[in-house]
Amino acid sequence: MVTTRTGVYPGTFDPITNGHLDLIGRATRLVDHLVIGVAGNPGKQPMFSLDERIKMIEEEVGRLDNLNGATFEVRAFDNLLMHFAEEVDANIIIRGLRAVSDFDFEFQMVGMNARLNDRIEIVFLMASENHQFIASSLVKEIARLGGDVTSFVSPDVAKQLVARASSEGGNAS
């Protein structure tokens, strides 16, 4: 009996960055099917709506489809991560780590999530050295202040970022 390894890679993805795409690509070595879970997270005051983020991610991962034989699915969620993972029959949750500060937070979450469901493994992937410093919040700030974001996000996402930053009254050009 062949079992499909389904993973969840959760995040706000506001917007999806090259760092996210790197982790998504590397996660395909671990799973057969990757569900990219997009958290609504209105408390973070996202720059892009949930629907806009989902569309952006679908376009970006569409270029990766069947990478390492894996398939992708992008879904919104607004419940506990472990409940979402159960809904999509995931047996792995992929989390990215950039720095020690990420580890501190994630370490606490692992303990809590294991109490909720100890059958789902949580796997950490270290950010590649080229992407360790990329954070969506910093990329948005650079766009709002008129900086060049093209080395942090795809060309399509960069266009959307610049347009949104301009419409918000930022200094983007």
Give a concise summary.
This protein is an alpha/beta fold.
Would you mind describing this structure in some detail?
With 173 residues, the chain is α/β, with parallel strands linked by helices. It has a single domain, classed as HUPs (Rossmann fold). 40% of the residues lie in helices and 18% in strands. It is built from six helices and five strands, in the order E-H-E-H-E-H-E-H-E-H-H. It has a five-stranded parallel beta sheet with strand order 3-2-1-4-5, sandwiched between helices. Helix 2 links the parallel strand 2 and strand 3.
For the structure shown, list the relevant keywords.
single chain; 173 residues; alpha/beta; Rossmann fold; 18% strand; globular
Uncertain segments of ≥5 residues (pLDDT<50)?
none
Query: How many separate domains make up the residues?
Result: 1
* CATH fold group: Rossmann fold
Give me the CATH architecture, please: 3-Layer(aba) Sandwich
Distance between the termini: 56 Å
